[in-house]
């Protein structure tokens, strides 16, 4: 089925680890209760017009939005004040708050990995400090670059120094739990409001609250149901295609759990591929066709699914791909021809960058990066990082107001977990942040389609059928519980419930 690239044992192991984690990075889900009809018209595909467009992502002509103290619907999250960090919860001066940002952008085999989350953190900190800080506390960032395989060393930078981790993430985030004093998330009594979580160990751990929850034991079924409503003939026979690694199998298993909740949709195959070394995708394409599958979902990297779709279309396949959020990437479009990729659908919980002029928070995100980060990169993960920072500052402000100016870790977690209907100021669909062990995925999503080499909104149309608010479909019954074994969170029972 494939040729093999010969690597040293060390290089082979590292490459496999990278592929596994990177492929699962942006599998987004969250929790939002809502309403909405199930009948879907086809007008969006008929006109194929982007609601936004490439020009919408350009920086604004003036700095008014950047200089405003508001971030979308979040009013003045930063400013002057007399806040203080609780005694013993960080090192450093009394007029600062030290925040660690996990990332992997120094990875030698994937340079710049997750750079958008570091860029977003830098931009937010610069902007916030220009407003006066968090209740007067200036943000000091601790760069926790784990370089993929040095996560334990990165954790050492935060332990005993950082008040909290905010806006970041490691692709191998299970390594944050070293089990050692001085480098273990729990033993260091750290708290985290991350941009993302990947592993079951991290995503369902306690001591962290995700602004866009991505637990492994629940998943939105909205995108599959909307897909079936739009394209019943193609959706009827579905197959998952996934890289043969444990972390990617979990993503596939979550997708499979959805199928019984979509009446009329059935699974007709289950295909895996070597995550590295595949050069000929024809055998896999033929296997998919032989199964009778008229639709597929993919767990892996963008260039590879683009190549598979090329081979499928070469063989006359008339089906359609339904893809996770990590394929909302120019690399996906650049890796295949319009003939092969057009019609592919991608689920989204954040707003599209192409629609920045419709959503002030997205515009703000783009303009902050432009103002404060030379050579800054923008991406969905960057918006998730901004959302995490906004959730943290909102919680910190409330804690200070309720506790005589004191900001403590327990209060941050309790306040963040009690937040509901969270949109990051308008960066993404409504979410219900919660501590890891009890969080649920959101039902909200939209479908984005590739058309003529561009991402365009497919469903719901803004203000149209199925739009339950700000362009997202959020049916109340759009949540599926995953009953298969997908691992457990790293829970420290000695930590207080928030």
Outline the secondary-structure elements:
Blueprint: H1 9-24, H2 43-47, H3 64-67, E1 84-85, E2 96-103, H4 115-131, E3 138-145, H5 151-158, E4 164-166, E5 192-193, H6 200-203, E6 218-220, H7 222-230, H8 232-235, E7 237-243, H9 246-258, E8 266-267, E9 271-273, H10 282-290, E10 295-299, H11 302-314, E11 320-323, H12 330-334, H13 338-341, E12 345-348, H14 360-372, H15 380-402, E13 406-407, H16 409-417, E14 446-451, E15 454-459, E16 479-481
Parallel strand pairs: 1-13, 2-3, 2-4, 4-5, 7-8, 7-9, 7-10, 10-11, 11-12
Antiparallel strand pairs: 6-16, 12-14, 14-15
Helix pairs in contact: 1-9, 4-14, 4-15, 10-11, 15-16
Report the span from N to C terminus: 50 Å
Shape: globular
Uncertain spans:
1-12, 26-56
Query: What is the strand tally?
Result: 16
Q: Averaging pLDDT over every residue, what do you get?
A: 89
Describe this structure in words.
This protein is of the alpha/beta class and about 500 residues long. The protein folds into two domains: about 200 residues, Response regulator (Rossmann fold), CATH 3.40.50.2300; about 230 residues, Response regulator (Rossmann fold, 3-Layer(aba) Sandwich), CATH 3.40.50.2300. About 30% of the residues lie in helices and about 15% in strands. It is built from 16 helices and 16 strands. The strands form four sheets. Strands 7, 8, 9, 10, 11, 12, 14 and 15 form an eight-stranded mixed β-sheet that branches. A four-stranded parallel β-sheet has the order 3-2-4-5. α11 links the parallel β10 and β11. α4 crosses α14. The chain is globular and about 65 Å long. The N terminus is likely disordered.
